[in-house]
Design goal:
Elements (H helix, E strand, L loop, with lengths): L3 H30 L5 H33 L5 H8 L4 H16 L4 E2 L1 H8 L5 H10 L5 H4 L3 E5 L8 E5 L1 H11 L20 E3 L12 H15 L17 E6 L6 H12 L3 E4 L1 H4 L6 H16 L2 E4 L2 H4 L9 H16 L3 E6 L15 E4 L8 H7 L6 E2 L5 H7 L4 H18 L3 E2 L1 H14 L16
Parallel strand pairs: 5-8, 5-9, 6-7, 7-8, 10-11
Antiparallel strand pairs: 1-3, 2-3, 4-6
Helix pairs in contact: 1-2, 1-4, 1-5, 12-14, 15-16, 17-18
Length: 459
């Protein structure tokens, strides 16, 4: 073995044997289903064991050749790729097999049990358990977006195939075609980014300035969900709606998306943020597939879902004219009810939502502009730690003088910080904050600031 071409060529030959093994496995599975585990079953089982022994020997030869070639100075792209992405032997085998079947066979994805049964050749149960661990949601393969879950178009809701990330496949194919490419690593060109933004949460509960009652209600729901509810056997009686679904509604800039972020951080999870344009598709049926893929991926990545502008995603079906739009809302409602994780829906127009959503929501919270008691805390919360607060700054006066929601206060503070940056200062004064607040107030969409649209508004 001298180069990458040899590497892929020799392992793909092994992959062809793995596929041949599938025929033996299917015969065994069929005999088990029909309860005919007698003479023919044991004959097929013996054939499977002999085939696995042959494959183990061939694999030992392959990995030994790789190691010897490396000792002699050879470098192999896929080994460097695996090292960069912290992949062990089981993960490497899974990726190579999925790449092979994706390129040379019509089957692009496999369920976990199928994949383990074909690619694992060791006789011990320990090996199979380790292979299952390599394919779980917490493994590097999923955390680094090398593999994704793709819902099946038929079958039960929980049916999903493990597939090679299309972006990862494209990168590997480009390399195999002779192009000099950068080694693909976590998060690069993740197809999920087309339908949702998976990221680390930016805010914690202490960053969100809201009435304590709201925080207490939210924490009650997520802490009980995170805690011992699974030990109560609720799945015996409650088949759907076991997740925690929140609806946050109210004017813009009042902290709805920020609270969703804080919930994810409190639970130690990533947040999958989604807006309507990211999941709609002009092709018939593709939008519904995108929705199903989002929920499946959120489960695999152990993420909190946040749907912004939920009114555009769950608009009342009573006001719709097109069957396609009604079908879209139907799928959304079904997925929400089946989802067993944490879901946040935010909207400025709760009256536009479909009435069927109400019973699927665990907690509905109305967000109102912060009152005078809360506004000082919001002003203070937006001052960066590297900025010194001058002695003359009076947050209570700011909260009393400017009736603004959190989003507008943030903009006002940004205006003040721009002034500091321009003047190369690190201490913020009351005058800076008054300057920022007045600038923001002049630009707010207040009734007294609005002008007629079009030619009528011109002087």
């Amino acid at each position: 073995m001298k180069n990458d071409q040899d590497y892929f060529s020799e392992y793909f030959t092994l992959c062809e044997f793995f596929l041949q093994k599938r025929a033996i496995l299917e015969k065994l599975w069929e005999r088990v289903r029909k309860s005919t585990c007698e003479g023919e079953y044991w004959k097929d089982l013996g054939e499977l064991k002999r085939f696995d022994a042959f494959l183990r020997e061939e694999e030992v030869i392959f990995w030994r050749d790789v190691e010897n070639a490396r000792k002699n100075g050879a470098k192999f792209f896929f080994d460097d790729f695996s090292h960069e992405n912290e992949l062990g032997l089981f993960e490497k085998k899974a990726v190579l097999f999925l790449l092979y079947t994706n390129l040379f066979h019509p089957v692009c994805g496999w369920q976990v049990n199928e994949l383990v049964a074909m690619v694992d050749t060791e006789p011990s149960w320990d090996s199979k358990l380790r292979f299952h661990k390599a394919l779980c949601a917490e493994s590097p393969l999923f955390k680094r977006n090398i593999l994704i879950l793709k819902p099946r178009t038929s079958g039960s809701h929980h049916d999903a195939d493990i597939v090679l990330n299309p972006a990862m496949r494209s990168a590997l194919v480009e390399f195999m075609s002779g192009k000099n490419i950068e080694i693909p690593t976590a998060g690069k060109d993740d197809p999920l980014q087309e339908t949702g933004n998976l990221r680390e949460p930016e805010y914690g509960m202490d960053d969100v300035v809201l009435p304590q009652k709201i925080k207490d209600d939210v924490l009650f729901h997520i802490d009980s969900w995170k805690g011992g509810m699974g030990d109560l056997g609720i799945e015996e009686k409650i088949k759907k709606g076991r997740g925690a679904a929140f609806l946050f509604y109210g004017p813009p800039g009042t902290g709805k998306s920020m609270l969703a972020d804080a919930i994810a951080r409190h639970l130690g999870k990533k947040i999958l943020q989604v807006a309507m344009p990211q999941i709609t598709d002009k092709l018939f049926g593709e939008t519904e597939k995108n929705i199903a893929n989002l929920f499946t991926t959120a489960k695999a990545r152990n993420a909190v879902i946040c749907f912004d502008e939920a009114d555009s995603l769950l608009y009342s079906r009573q006001r719709m004219e097109h069957e396609r739009d009604i079908a879209f809302v139907n799928v959304m409602l079904q997925e929400i009810e089946r989802f067993e994780g944490v879901l946040c829906l935010t909207t400025n127009f709760d009256t536009a939502l479909d009435p069927a959503l109400e019973r699927r929501v665990s907690l509905k919270i109305k967000f109102t502009p912060p009152d005078q008691a809360l506004r000082p805390g919001i002003w203070r919360a937006h001052i960066p730690s590297k900025v010194t607060i001058a002695a003359d700054v009076d947050f209570n006066e700011l909260g009393q003088k400017f009736v603004m929601s959190g989003g507008y206060i943030k903009n006002a503070v940004m205006n003040a910080l721009r002034r500091l940056a321009q003047e190369k200062r690190t201490s913020i004064t009351m005058e800076d904050l008054l300057f920022g607040a007045r600038m923001e107030q002049d630009g707010m969409f207040l009734k007294e600031n609005k002008q007629p649209m079009g030619f009528a508004g011109r002087v």
